[in-house]
Write a structure and sequence with these properties.
Chain lengths: 328, 291
Amino acid sequence: MNTKKISLIVYALLLVALVAAPFFGAYPVFVMKLMCFALFAAAFNLLLGFTGLLSFGHAAFLGGSAYVAGHAIKVWGLTPELGLIAGTLSGAFLGWIFGVLAIRRQGIYFAMITLALAQMMFFVALQAKFTGGEDGLQGVPRGKLFGLVDLSNDLTMYYVALVIVVAAFLLIVRTIHSPFGQVLKGIKENEPRALSLGYDVSRFKLLAFVISAALSGLAGSLKTLVLGFATLSDVHWTASGQVILMTLVGGLGTLSGPLVGSAVVVLLENKIGELGNLLARITTVDWFNTLGESVTMVTGLIFVICVLAFRKGIMGEIIAFIDRRRAK
Amino acid sequence: MTISLPALLSQLLLGLVNGSFYAILSLGLAVIFGLLNVINFAHGALFMLGAVLTWMAMEYLGVNYWVMLIAAPIVIGIFGVLIERLLLRWIYKLDHLYGLLLTLGLTLLIEGVFRSVYGVSGLPYDAPDALSSSTDLGFMVLPNYRAWVVVASLVICFATWFVIEKTRLGAYLRAGTENPRLVEAFGVNVPLMITLTYAFGCALAAFAGVLAAPVMQVSPLMGQNLIIVVFAVVVIGGMGSIMGAILTGLGLGVIEGFTKVFYPEASSTVVFVIMVIVLLIRPAGLFGKEK
């Protein structure tokens, strides 16, 4: 059996598991939140893993679109699908602006520029009237999809969200395997060479950036629709750091990595308090009980370990392991 | 809109104070990047450590400001040696972005530790007695401490500039930035130079932190917003020139101060807006060279 078949089977199993999850006691809203972050990380990975551009500003697309979609649905009274489209388009537009500016500089400057632009967006979100400042944008109704399907039911919302996320993921897969995706890979491996072959490298980078930003915007809009609110934490730079961590933990430049990475990071952040209590009971060190309040500390530690010793990430290591086995 | 001269001048001074921090921090970032090819995201956390150590020394040991002005940079410098020897050393051969990610992780780790102990609210720290009063200059009242911050920062910045641009030691450093292998072939201990450079950059950040303790709220998060502004400063100035980093830092601080007077809503975004303009007009930065 070749690797392609194995991975197809694994994806099919994952899909079946997601379809069945609500019937086995999984809390739909939590799984939906997980799916939003998985989409966010997959969109981010399109840029970092497949084009080699480190954006440190993806929070702006996630959070910015979350506000736009929320505002469009709540204040303008748009239907959910139009709200999601509005959010996605605003992500694309913002991505275009960021991209045009950041692509003017190479390497590490690219990361710093995107970070600074995203921080600017954070202050805009903090001060603008329509975002609700520190309180965030609250009470966004889910409404009726196409005016027909009532999304206020968690289960209905769940399957709609699942369809959207799967479709977006397939789009990413398609992009990566397209000739366009191959050029992106070429740019990542050797930019001067891609340039000398006659590819307009800046345009390819910009397009990749816009696609990634648009899909991050979709993730943010969907999150608002699911949870009914958009907050400052989604525009804060730590959200940009978080998506880097998800991609890194899961495996840079692998299709499945961001899915695994986002699940690991979100679960860790939600369950770390319980984990701390457990450790405190086992080791009788009281300090572990406070672990729930020190998520950033643990996140930082994982970052350091990943960069020093685990750069391939979970899926990267698994794929490398399978390849080694097959080589024997 | 009428703005009184004293108000304008006091914002100018406040701008210079912030600009001094930008200058010292971007200077450190530039020196470290030049030799290590690492963008030290932890610079903000080290700045915070400088301030928190100063507060801790007063709170727990009764050690005063002046001692800490020397001691904190030394302690953080040693901490920098440890970071470089134990962590950064392993990633020099990798893509630049791993340096950023590693130091980002370190930042979250350091801030997380202090957050779990001190929370996020500000810890009060008084200016030393000798500088706590103000001087009436006639046209404005000059708070002595703020004046001291600006003067001390300028002295440190220009001393650094002098060492790097005008001394033999600085010549080694500049040569190492250009071509480390060649410098090593001439018998200079480049790995040691790298360690000391990183330690020096960290010590600079800590020095700025000590200076900041009485004027900013001392808190575990005080470094993280600052470091992002400093990144924008570095993008605006370009990392090629020491003097460029100093001037850009001070200049942006002043512009930010004036923005507070004329259009306060934009004061937190003005530096980023300037970054956008500079990127459009002069992508390599004001003092940068296009490679």
